[in-house]
Amino acid sequence: MERLDVELFNAIVNGDPDKALSVANRLVERGFDVQRLVTEILVPAMRRVGELFDRGDYFIADVIACAEAFRRVFENVVRPRLSGSSARRLGVAVFGTVKGDIHDLGKTLAKIIFEVEGFEVVDLGVDVSAEAFVEAVEKYNARIIGVSALMTTTMIEQRRVIEELKKKGLRGRVIVIAGGAPVTEEWVREIGADICGDDAFKALKKVKELMGVD
Length: 214
Hints:
Number of domains: 2
CATH class of the largest domain: Alpha Beta
Shape: globular
Number of strands: 5
Strand content: 5-15%
Radius of gyration: 17 Å
Mean pLDDT: 90
Helix content: 55-70%
Number of helices: 9
Order of helices and strands: HHHHEHEHEHEHEH
CATH topology of the largest domain: Rossmann fold
CATH superfamily of the largest domain: Cobalamin-binding domain
Structural class: alpha/beta
């Protein structure tokens, strides 16, 4: 089992979708839990990809290949088993990358982590306006909203989302996560968000604390 764990990790990091899918199927056939598959293999592998990219060892094309391997496993191995499970539903979370920003790796990882933990996640994608975020909160009766910004120039859009929520009288009913590499605790306090989403696992823990669930 350990060897398969390592094989899957390496297949993601090497950007090999076919091998990743094959190994992931073998793991779950042997009884490996899909939640562990995500939290112990898939997410750490993509973190490694992010480190390699930041270091200059990987380029955009490499990251895209790795993300495809990640996506293939999640869509074909993880999601069907989550959908068919009796896992509790903790509510709806709306995630998106703010207007003017097209980075989605961090947002996608957060989405998967929240789905595994029992949230129904509506992914609005990238370059999402403040109005679109608020419309989604209303439409899906969301309890959580995650606004991601990977550039300092687009972080201001996170403030605009919160301002729009206030205009519509919705701010008090949602937990706002402001995420992205440049986001700090100070920025979160300044714009009036609830949680700093620089780490999806920590953000999830804080969300559950605010909701009063284990």
